[in-house]
Amino acid sequence: MATGQPQVPRFIVCPVCHLRNDVTARFCRDCGLPLGFPRDPVRGTTTRRAELPSERGAGIAAILSLAAIVVIAGIAGYLVFRSFETTPVTAGANGASPAPSTVAPVGSVAAAGVVGAPIVQPTVAASPAASGDPADEPTEPPEEDPPDPPEDDPTPEPTLPTRTGWTCEKASIQDPLRGRWRVAQARWGRQDSFDRLTFDLVRLEGSARRGTIVAMEFLRPNRAASRYDVATPGGDRALVITFDGSLNLRAPISARPGLRSILTLEARTDDEGEVHAVVGVEGDGCARIVANDWRSGSDDTTTAKLVIDVRR
Length: 312
Prior knowledge:
This protein is α+β, with helices and mostly antiparallel strands. The chain is built from 3 helices and 15 strands. Among the domains are: about 10-50, no CATH class; about 170-310, Immunoglobulin-like, CATH 2.60.40. A hairpin with a 3-residue loop joins strand 6 (about 180-190) and strand 7.
C-alpha cells in the first residue's frame, strides 16, 4: 500500500458539537454547522456557529401571527353581527305577524324587557298635508241642510190623562177629543169626605188643533188675587184652575158656595183670552180633577162635566 496517497475519512466529526456525520453531509445533523466536501483542504476547520433563528425573533413572529388572527376573527364577527342586525323581524313572540317596521339605528334605546333583540320602530306614514300637494289633501263632503219636515205632518204633542189623583202639588189633564168648549154653568155640593165643584161644558162646532189643558195649583190667597185680578178668595188657600185651549166662559162667575172646604169661587177671562177659576179653600186638604166624559167620549160627544174635588 503506497504511503503517499491521502486517506479519505469514513465520517466527518463536527468541530463544534463533535457529532460524527456522514462523509457526504454538508451540514451537521446536530448543530447545523456547514461541513466541507471531502476534497476541501480546510474541511472541518471552521469554528463559526451556524446562524439559527433566535428565541427573541421567534417570539415576535408568534405575537404578530396571533394579532393577525385576532384582527381577522374580529372583522368576521362584526360582519356576522351586522348581518343579524339588519335581518327584518318576521313574527312576534306569540307567532302573529308584526306590523311593518324599520330597523332602528345602532345606539337606540331597546324596548324594556328585551335584551339583545333588534330594535324596531313603527313606520309612520306621511300625512297628505305634509306632501305639499293640494291634490293629496282629503276633501270633506259639503254639508247638506237637513230636510224640512212636511207641513202636513205636524209633530204630535204628548197627551195628558183625563184625571189626576189626590195631590197638593201642580197637576194637569187634557181633552183627547180636541173639542171646542164653553162653560155653561158651575155647580157645587158636598160628598162623604170632600166637597165637589162641577163645570158643565157644552161642545161648540168645529175642532181644535190641540185639546184643552186644565191645570190646577195652590197659592196664597193674596198672591192669587193680585196675579189673576180677582177679589181675595176666602179660606186658608186659593186653588187656581186654568183652562188653556179652546174653551171660553158664557159669562163671568162669582159665587160663595159656603161648603166646608170650598168657600168662594171667581171665574173670568183674562186679556189674552185664557179662563181662570180661583177657588177659596179652607184647610189643607188636597184636590183632584176628573173628566170622565172626555175619557169615554167620541166625536159625537156634545156635553161634558169637569169635576174638581177638594178634601175636607
